[in-house]
Specification:
Elements: H1 3-41, H2 43-59, E1 82-86, E2 92-96, H3 101-107, E3 109-115, E4 118-126, H4 128-185, H5 200-250, H6 260-283, E5 292-295, H7 296-313, E6 317-323, E7 328-331, H8 333-349, E8 356-363, E9 368-375, H9 409-419, E10 423-429, E11 433-441
Parallel strand pairs: 6-8
Antiparallel strand pairs: 1-2, 1-4, 3-4, 5-7, 8-9, 9-11, 10-11
Helix pairs in contact: 1-4, 3-4, 4-5, 5-6, 6-9, 7-8, 8-9
Length: 442
């Protein structure tokens, strides 16, 4: 059953149910009110007859024998009264008056005869005035019910029409969204639902559109990753294969120095495979971290000394500043060293001669230590910044794979930082340098 039909049936049943309950309660209240008025109008007569019948029952040893010998209506000051007395089995034991039995039972005032909280019989009092009141009592509730049914039916029809339109209105955004969901289910990634609303349906549509976009981006990343891996592997394998074919065709003894280019390509190939394995483990949350208390100020100084020769070749100054009172954290020093080494080598690579590279340790808060790696290099274009941490991404298209690494360094650095429950961000402007900001929790 469709959604809008479910809504319509639910609302319709609710409206009909409420109408039936309202009509029933109205009939009951009107009828009870009229009955109470009639009983109140004959309260004196009913009380007198109840007392007389109770006294007779007790005086005659709890028996109704010979009750037809007495005149119970002689003291009732009403026009043409009648009285019918019944025992507990509804059998007639006394009938006085000229009114037909049918009129007495239908239009008379009923009252139980109770002695010591025990019912011993029932009597029905009747006179023409009571009969007229009871006729009114019968007519008014029926008239009220008929009026309510008529007006209620009209209101129900109007309400059902409104409920039907409301159900269609509520379901219409889903009808627009459903084809997009079906298209996405068939593999059409990136499909967008055209629902321009500011309510909950709009939020659902926006969430669906974001999910569809992210799925398409993830699929694009997967395809690009496959293509990049194939490309990265093809280059060293092609070189190795070409060298081996050449050596085989020569048919001469192979000199050790001839094998060096092949060995270099195998080393590069192994490094690529190891980087991919490390990145996959980190992204899956299965990377093993050998955490221990590490003074990051000392670690940064050791990295600076190790990388200084590379900076000296380009006449670049490496500055290290510590503005943090606490620099000892529980980290895996080899992983953090790899992160900082990667950032520093990139900074030196893209900083011109006589430039500067700064490493600063700051107390960002009581909960984390901030490490800033900043250079005075060429900067990064804004369109490249969102993709810097993607696998195999190179902001500089002119970089060769021989001189630029595998393209996994920043992706691995990000995953290492995330594995320490930290964050890494980048800020950059063209011709003004780049700044990487790492935050590690204490």
């Amino acid at each position: 059953m469709r959604f809008h039909r479910k809504i319509f049936l639910t609302v319709a049943l609710t409206i009909v149910g409420i109408s039936i309950v309202f009509i029933t309660l109205t009939h009951f209240i009107v009828k009870s009110s009229i009955e109470a008025g009639i009983h109140e109008a004959r309260k004196k007569e009913v009380a007198f007859l109840s007392s007389e019948l109770s006294d007779y029952y007790l005086v005659h040893n709890q028996s109704w024998e010979e009750i037809d010998q007495i005149d119970l209506l002689q003291d009732v000051d009403r026009e043409s009264p009648s009285l019918l007395v019944l025992d507990n089995d509804k059998r007639e034991i006394f009938n006085q008056g000229d009114a037909p039995l049918k009129l007495i039972t239908r239009l008379g005032v009923r009252n139980d005869i109770v002695i010591n909280e025990k019912k011993v019989g029932q009597f029905i009092y009747y006179d023409p005035e009571v009969a007229n009141s009871n006729k009114i009592m019968i007519g008014i509730p029926v008239s009220v019910v008929l009026a309510l049914i008529g007006s209620g039916s009209l209101l129900i029809i109007i309400a059902l029409f409104i409920a039907y339109q409301l159900s269609r209105w509520l379901a219409s955004p889903l009808k627009v969204l459903l084809p997009s969901i079906e298209r996405l289910g068939k593999g059409e990634l990136g499909v967008q639902a055209d629902v321009n609303m500011n309510d909950e349906y709009g939020k659902i549509a926006n969430a669906f559109n974001r999910m569809s976009t992210e799925l398409k981006q993830a699929e694009d990343v997967r395809r690009n990753l496959t293509a990049d891996i194939a490309h990265e592997l093809r280059t060293p394998l092609t070189i190795v294969g070409g060298k081996l074919d050449y050596l085989q065709q020569q048919g001469q003894p192979i000199q050790p120095e001839t094998l060096l280019p092949i060995q270099d390509e195998l080393i590069r190939l192994n490094r690529l495979v190891e980087d991919l394995r490390t990145l996959s483990l980190a992204e899956a949350g299965k990377l093993t971290l050998n955490k221990k208390a590490t003074n990051l100020a000392d670690l940064v100084q050791r990295i600076r000394l190790a990388i200084e020769p590379l900076a000296d070749e380009k006449d670049i100054s490496i500055q290290c500043e510590v503005h943090a009172g606490q620099t000892t954290l529980s980290v895996d020093p080899s992983r953090i060293k790899q992160v900082l080494f990667n950032l520093l080598t990139n900074a030196i690579r893209y900083t011109p001669s006589q430039g500067t590279v700064q490493i600063r340790l700051l107390n960002d808060s009581q909960h984390s230590l901030k490490i800033v790696v900043q250079d005075s290099g060429i900067g990064i274009a804004p369109e490249h910044i969102p993709h810097l941490f993607d696998r195999f991404y190179r902001a500089d298209e002119a970089r060769t794979r021989d001189g630029g690494g595998t393209g996994l360094g920043l992706a691995i650095a990000k995953q290492f930082v995330l594995s320490h429950q930290g964050t890494i961000e980048v800020e950059s402007s063209l011709d003004q340098g780049t700044r990487f900001i790492i935050q590690l929790p204490y």
